[in-house]
Amino acid sequence: MTRSPLTTPPPGAVVPAAHPEGPPPGTALGSHYGRCFGCGTDQPTGLHLKAVTPDGATVEAEFTVGEAHQGSPMLAHGGVLAAAMDEVIGMSVYLFRKPYVTGRLETDYVLPVPVGTTLHLRAWCNGITGRQAYLEAEGRIGAPDGPVAVRAAALFIEVGMGHFAKHGDLSAIATELQDYEVNP
Ligand SMILES: CCCCCCCC/C=C\CCCCCCCC(=O)SCCNC(=O)CCNC(=O)[C@H](O)C(C)(C)COP(=O)(O)OP(=O)(O)OC[C@H]1O[C@@H](n2cnc3c(N)ncnc32)[C@H](O)[C@@H]1OP(=O)(O)O
């Protein structure tokens, strides 16, 4: 992965173990918000990512590139692929049971991805220090060990739940996501 210093964990950043109250290995991760473009089931042209955590600390997911996700004829739009990486990375950092938002997302596009392709995504944490979490993801064509089409490195910043109340509509998330204490 080509990455900048901004998404490279500094010395001393720690890779957290699975959270004791996090989902057990093998758990399917539901959508955090039905209208989410990445995982929501009420978003007709969304990515409809299906995810599972194999170990409570990383995420594996599948995303099938649809007709609505094209950039050039019958090929996935790069921004849509970046959205898939953002989503799977966001899911993985949420396993540590704190709310984070994307501060920076860097993407390497390695292969074109035709419409109809199922991308097998994987995201993991390379370290956390203070409010900064350094994460990485990859998307492989057709199978978990298929050719790599996309790689991403990201810096996520921890925020309070008040972030979503101040800038968005926390209640819409809170009604769906019962395992967060809502105290903005
Ligand atoms: C999503 C809802 C979830 C709610 C419920 C949770 C359930 C989740 C379940 C499942 C999750 C699934 C998936 C979601 C996936 C999608 C995630 C997204 O796409 S999130 C949307 C896009 N991102 C934004 O909209 C951020 C917009 N930016 C901001 O709001 C601010 O800039 C923010 C919070 C990132 C930082 O602002 P400050 O005022 O709090 O803090 P400052 O002091 O500026 O930054 C803190 C430190 O981080 C560095 N930093 C911040 N942004 C940086 C950047 N872009 N590059 C490098 N460093 C950066 C700063 O330099 C600073 O570092 P120093 O402490 O001084 O060392």
From TrEMBL:
Q: Does the keyword Transmembrane apply?
A: no
- Pfam families, alphabetized: 4HBT (PF03061)
| Record keyword Plastid present | no
Domain Thioesterase positions: 76-140
Primary localisation category: membrane
What is a GO molecular function of this protein? hydrolase activity
UniProt membrane topology term: Peripheral membrane protein
User: Reaction catalysed?
Assistant: (9Z)-octadecenoyl-CoA + H2O = (9Z)-octadecenoate + CoA + H(+); decanoyl-CoA + H2O = decanoate + CoA + H(+); dodecanoyl-CoA + H2O = dodecanoate + CoA + H(+); tetradecanoyl-CoA + H2O = tetradecanoate + CoA + H(+)
| Entry GO terms, CC | cytoplasm; membrane
Q: Tell me its EC number(s), please.
A: 3.1.2.2
A Gene Ontology biological process in which this protein takes part is: fatty acid metabolic process
Keywords in alphabetical order: Apoptosis, Cell membrane, Cell projection, Cytoplasm, Fatty acid metabolism, Hydrolase, Lipid metabolism, Membrane, Transit peptide
Record InterPro entries: HotDog_dom_sf (IPR029069), THEM4/THEM5_acyl-CoA_thioest (IPR052365), Thioestr_dom (IPR006683)
Instruction: Give the subcellular location.
Output: Cell projection, Ruffle membrane; Cytoplasm; Membrane
Region (Disordered), start-end ranges: 1-27
Question: Which positions make up the signal peptide?
Answer: none
The family line of this record is:
Belongs to the THEM4/THEM5 thioesterase family.
Record PANTHER family: ACYL-COENZYME A THIOESTERASE THEM4
Q: What is this protein called?
A: Acyl-coenzyme A thioesterase THEM4
Give the source species: Nonomuraea phyllanthi
